[in-house]
Amino acid sequence: MSILGARCGAVLEDTISSAVYYFVHLSMAKQWSVPGTKPLGAGSNVAVPPLRRVAGPGPYWRVCPGDDDWGTDAAALQAALEDCMDSGEAVLA
Fold first, then answer.
1. Positive or negative torsion for Cα 31, 61, 76, 88
2. pTM above 0.90?
3. What's residue 19's pLDDT?
């Protein structure tokens, strides 16, 4: 998230399933190929908490969605994740 800065859209973390979700355009799921990550496509379900929930346990917003767009630019996200992996940084923090 720190690498993405203003290019980061909504981010949801679920402490129970140890997952972090970035929202990108659905068409990117078929093209996604970042090791250690899993794209969720059509037919996938994610529990979305109320906007006021900004701490766990369970699902909460690390970055609340905006009024217009929840999405993160997929190319920027892929580059940021690859940079973290290359440097040995925690990928999801």
1. negative
2. no
3. 92
Which residues of the chain carry a pLDDT beneath 70?
Answer: 87-93
Amino acid at 41: G
Are the C-beta atoms of 75 and 22 separated by less than 8 Å? no
| Residues in Cβ contact with 4 at an 8 Å cutoff, skipping those fewer than 6 apart | 72, 76, 77, 80
Exposure string for 39-53, b = 16+ CB within 10 A, e = fewer: eeeeeeeeeeeeeee
Both tokens assigned to 4: 């993405």
Return the pLDDT at 89.
Answer: 58
List strand residue ranges (DSSP E) for the chain, in order: 11-14, 19-22, 59-63
Check if the beta carbon of residue 77 is closer than 8 Å to that of residue 68.
no
